[in-house]
Structures are given as structure tokens and as C-alpha cells.
Amino acid sequence: MTISRLTSGLKSPWRVLLFVFPWTACLLTLALQEHSVGYTREMEPNKCRLENKTDGIKAFCSNLRLKSIPQDLPPNTTTLIASHNIMQLLQNDSFENLTRLVSLNVGSNQISHLDSRTFLPLSDLRVLNMAKNRLTHLTDDVFDSNPLLSLLILSSNCFSSVPSGALATLHQLQMVSLDHNNIQKVDFTAFRHLNNISVIDLSRNIISSLLASDFEPLQNSSLDSIKLAYNMVRSLPFGTFSFLHRVSTLDLQQNAFLEFNVNSFLGSVIISELSVSYCKIGRIVPLKATSLHNKTTLSIDSVEMDGNEICSIPDYAFRGFSQTRTLNIIKNKVTTMTNGSFCGLDSLENLDISENHINSLPSGLFRCNPRLLVLNIARNEILVVNPVAFCGLSVLLKLDLSHNFIGRMDTHHWNNTALRVLDISHNQYTYINKKISSFGV
Ligand SMILES: *[C@@H]1O[C@H](CO)[C@@H](O)[C@H](O)[C@H]1NC(C)=O
Ligand SMILES: *[C@@H]1O[C@H](CO)[C@@H](O)[C@H](O)[C@H]1NC(C)=O
Ligand SMILES: *[C@@H]1O[C@H](CO)[C@@H](O)[C@H](O)[C@H]1NC(C)=O
Ligand SMILES: *[C@@H]1O[C@H](CO)[C@@H](O)[C@H](O)[C@H]1NC(C)=O
Ligand SMILES: *[C@@H]1O[C@H](CO)[C@@H](O)[C@H](O)[C@H]1NC(C)=O
Ligand SMILES: *[C@@H]1O[C@H](CO)[C@@H](O)[C@H](O)[C@H]1NC(C)=O
Ligand SMILES: *[C@@H]1O[C@H](CO)[C@@H](O)[C@H](O)[C@H]1NC(C)=O
Ligand SMILES: *[C@@H]1O[C@H](CO)[C@@H](O)[C@H](O)[C@H]1NC(C)=O
Ligand SMILES: *[C@@H]1O[C@H](CO)[C@@H](O)[C@H](O)[C@H]1NC(C)=O
């Protein structure tokens, strides 16, 4: 391939770059050659590029302005990449002669219609990517003959609801992506008996409410991840997550909760990581001591709350979060904390309250968190460090107080004997006592 042919297809800044740095073009040409060396053969008339893989032919048919699936591909084609074409529909006979397909990518086309028997011949199909098309629904029987389907990508289509009927038969399904659609309501009914499901992505839709009953079908499922980020969920009613007994990640970031009500987490909730980052949360509503009865086995290992609008952390803000080891409240507007703010967080090991507007640390601030290992208070507005704030932190290893306005540092009263890293850079010291060096700074 000559450089001129290559460059004619590139936008002008690249042409300039290639002109100035001819070696760039060589690298590019080499890369292209390497990609097509040996096993490749061009086929007329559809110009798909074929690669001979050990498990069958891999056909590259992207960007060819195809209106339909090429019919002259070898019958032993196992992977077909036909993305970025102009197909508007797939028909009953589209895959008649491609019965050995294992992986099919028809993403970035204009597909708005699938005949109900389109995928019937594809009994080996495991991966199906139909992202960036115009699908609005799937018929319930469309995947009846694809029992091995384990990865299904339906991102960026026009679904207004979860195609539950079609999904419910996919017993090997491990991941389904339905992000970037117009789905208004969660619907997990399809997953009731899909024991292998690991990731459900419903982010970037227009879901506005969540109810505890919505999650009931997932109660026995050990999902790795439920993604509900970038939706429009405004409130989390009492016990919303009470059916999530063992989910790894629940991603709710970029919704609009306005408040973080601990009531929402009552029940036998077991979640490894909960994210409510960038949810416009302005207020934490703690649980009353009496609400924490013995039916609650709230276990959330890590809570991400960065990028919200929290101004104050009330007493026992996280009552019930006794299993939580990591709490991140970075980039909020916290100014006010009390000696009870972090009470209830009995197992807390990592606390990050950096990038807030904290100007003082009350005495006994961390009195309820004897297991703290890493504490980050950087990028706040602290003028004076109150040594009694760190009282009782006998296993604290790392303390970051950098980027504050600290002018005086007196650590005589500190007895944080385990402290190994103390970052006090970017402050405004006029006085630092000697003991600091004993922390290995
Ligand atoms: C694919 O490889 C086989 C041997 O493994 C060879 O016989 C066949 O000609 C190759 N086909 C193509 C299209 O290169
Ligand atoms: C696929 O079929 C072609 C033609 O029948 C054959 O040459 C090739 O070896 C086959 N390749 C594989 C990987 O089975
Ligand atoms: C596809 O197959 C289904 C089921 O047999 C049939 O109802 C439908 O009419 C077929 N579509 C076309 C376009 O032939
Ligand atoms: C599939 O292959 C058969 C035999 O080569 C041919 O008759 C038929 O037209 C092909 N199907 C399509 C949809 O092209
Ligand atoms: C889940 O996947 C494993 C293999 O990955 C398989 O053995 C098992 O049958 C699948 N479970 C279900 C319910 O299909
Ligand atoms: C989960 O398991 C329990 C106990 O085995 C059963 O009663 C319940 O119906 C199951 N739930 C679902 C959604 O499968
Ligand atoms: C649970 O709480 C109820 C009343 O709040 C009490 O009667 C019961 O003994 C408690 N059960 C356990 C196992 O602690
Ligand atoms: C916490 O602060 C309150 C109010 O400032 C005070 O009455 C209380 O004694 C403090 N508790 C501890 C354990 O320091
Ligand atoms: C650290 O200091 C506090 C108060 O100054 C005291 O209550 C606590 O016993 C001390 N801990 C150790 C390990 O010296």
C-alpha cells in the first residue's frame, strides 16, 4: 500500500503529520501490513477480509456499505464482523449459510427489524453485538435457538423496556448491555432463573424510580455488577435493596437522589461496592437507633459518594454501616463534622474526605473508627491541626493533610504509633516541631 493511497483517506491534520514525519506513515503502513500478513485473502464481490483461525474463518466486513449479510462467505466462518454498514434489517435467511457462527457483530448499522427466525440457524452463537442500531423491541422467541449465547450487547438502540421475554431463555447469559437506550423502568424478571448472569448494564437510560420488588428476581443471584449509572432515579424508598443478598457492584452514580437515606439500605443487603457518586446528594439522613433491629444484616464493603453536595456529616450518619471498610466522600462541600459523624462505621479502614471545605477537625472525630489505616483529608481548608482529632487511631498507617492552609504543626500529643506516611506538603508552615521526622516523612 502506498502512502498516497493511505493518506488520501485521512483528514488533513493527519496528512500534514505524515508529510512532516514520514516515519509515522511507515509505522502506520507496517502496522497495517502486520495486521493483514499471511492468512489474508480478498474476496470479490463483497471485499470482506478473511483470516484463517484455528477454530474457523474470521470475516472482517466492516465499513463496506453492506445492505445485507454477504452470502459468499465460507460456510466455516465462525466470527463475522459486519459493523459500520447500512443494513436496515436482518431476515430469516440472512444466516442460512453461516451456521457455524460463534461470534457476530452487526453493531453500528441501521437495523430496526429482525425477522423472528433470523438467528434460528446459529445454534453455536455465543457472542452477539447489535449495539448502535435502531431496535425498539425483540420478539420473545428470537433467541430460542441460541442456547449458548453468553454475551449480548444491545447498547445504543431504541428499547423503551427490557426485552425480558427474549432474554429469559438464555441460560448461559453472562452479560447483557442495554445502556444508552430509552428504558424507563428496570425489569429484572428475565434474570430470575439465569444463574450465570454476571453483568447487567442499564446505565444511561431514563429510569426514574426503583422499588424493592424490582430486585426480587435477583435475590439468589451472585451478580458481579448491576449498572444503573446515568439514569434519573430521584429517590430510594425504604429497603430498596433488601433483596440484594450478594451483589459485587451496584453502580448508581450520576442519578439525582438529593438525599442519602440510610433507610434505603435496610434488609439483608450484601453488596461489595456501592457507588452513589455525582448524585446531587445534599443531605445524609441517618437511621434512628431503634430502626436498627436484628433483621438488618447490612453489609456494604465500600461506599463511594464522591462528587455530591454534602455540607455536613451528622452524628451517626452511617449508622448500620458497621461492615463498611472504605468510605469516599471526596469532592463534596463538607464544612461541618462532629465527634459522632463517623460513629457506626466500626470497621472503617479507609476514609477519604479530601477536596471538601473542612476548616477544623473536632476532638475525637475518629473516636469510633479504631481500625482506620488510611485517612485522606487533603485539599481542604484546615488552618490548625487539632492533635486530639486523631486520638485512638493506633493502627493508622497513612495520613494525608497536604494542600491545606496549615500554618503550625505540633505533634507532641500525637500517639499514632503506627503512622508511617504523613503528607503535609503544600501548606503554609511557619512552625513544625521535630517529632514529625519520627514518622518517616
Ligand atoms: C486455511 O488453512 C488451511 C490449513 O489449515 C488451508 O488448507 C486453507 O487453504 C486455508 N484457507 C485460507 C482461506 O487461507
Ligand atoms: C474453511 O473452509 C475452507 C474451504 O472449505 C478450507 O479451505 C479451510 O481450511 C477451512 N478452515 C478452517 C479453519 O476450518
Ligand atoms: C420469518 O419466519 C417467520 C416464522 O416462520 C415468519 O412468520 C415470517 O413471515 C418470516 N419472515 C419473512 C420475511 O419471510
Ligand atoms: C445458501 O447456500 C445454498 C447452497 O449453496 C444456496 O442455494 C442458497 O441460496 C444460499 N442461501 C442464501 C440465503 O443465499
Ligand atoms: C453456567 O456456566 C457454566 C460454565 O461456564 C455451566 O457449566 C453451567 O451449566 C452454567 N449454568 C447454567 C445455569 O446454565
Ligand atoms: C431464592 O431461593 C429461595 C430459597 O431457596 C426461594 O424460596 C426463592 O423463591 C428464590 N428466589 C428466586 C427469585 O428464585
Ligand atoms: C431480635 O429482636 C427482637 C425484638 O427486637 C427480640 O425479641 C429477639 O430476641 C431478637 N433476636 C435475636 C436473635 O437477637
Ligand atoms: C462529643 O461532642 C459533644 C458535643 O460537643 C460533647 O458533649 C461530648 O462529650 C463529646 N464526646 C466525646 C466522646 O468526646
Ligand atoms: C493516646 O492518647 C489518648 C488521649 O491522649 C489516650 O486516651 C490513649 O490511651 C493513648 N493511646 C496510646 C496507645 O497511648
Automatic annotation (TrEMBL):
SMART domains (UniProt xref): LRR_TYP
Database matches in PANTHER family: LEUCINE RICH REPEATS AND IMMUNOGLOBULIN LIKE DOMAINS 1, SLIT RELATED LEUCINE-RICH REPEAT NEURONAL PROTEIN
InterPro entries: Dev_Immune_Receptor, Leu-rich_rpt, Leu-rich_rpt_typical-subtyp, LRR_dom_sf
Name the record gives this protein: Uncharacterized protein
Keywords, sorted A to Z: Leucine-rich repeat, Repeat, Signal
Superkingdom of source: Eukaryota
Recorded GO MF terms: signaling receptor activity
Signal peptide: 1-33
Any one GO cellular component localisation term in the record: plasma membrane
Coiled-coil boundaries: none
